[in-house]
Amino acid sequence: MAITVSNHLKAMLYPEDIRSIDEKRFRIPCDRCFTVLHFGYECKRERNKSGYPFGNTTSTILDFTIRLMSPEDGKPFYHQMQQNEPEFFTFLFNATLFNRQYVTGYEDAMVVNGYVIDVEDDFTNAPTSEGSTEQMLIHVKLLVANITYIGVNGDRYIEISRKVSR
Q1: Is the dihedral of CA 37, 136, 75, 8 positive or negative?
Q2: What are the backbone dihedrals phi and psi of residue 97, each rounded to the nearest 5 degrees, phi first?
Q3: What is the separation of C-alpha 54 from the centre of its chain, rounded to a whole number of angstroms?
Q4: DSSP tag of 15
Q5: Alpha carbon distance 46, 8 (integer Å)
Q6: pTM higher than 0.70, yes or no?
């Protein structure tokens, strides 16, 4: 059985909003990012007979799984769940790494603002060239307030917001 190893990370999670970082000085330490193993969400709106969206966007739950290097790395997610305040999370797709120490660019990004509503730890065995090793994963669920899609080099912003009625 062959082990597939990729030199390129397809998706990384940066637990902050990248829109505040100057594009000319875009440089995020890799130790502040997490490898995304899985994420998914469904965002939909009602449509009228003509096919045009109307009404509020329904509640959207985004769930993602990341790999942790140490159990201490998971503490901020539990803390955010207890705070019950919206937090920013940035998903970077096809990130450019400099010396495997810094993220210096990305192909696309998705900035999510939402509430952490569930966190679950998971210990699993991962195949390595020496056999297998135990790794720690964390599954997080967010109640999404808004999602902003960002294209190459900060171009092409698209925002999907959920209006909260009071």
Answers
A1: negative
A2: -110, 140
A3: 28
A4: S
A5: 38
A6: yes
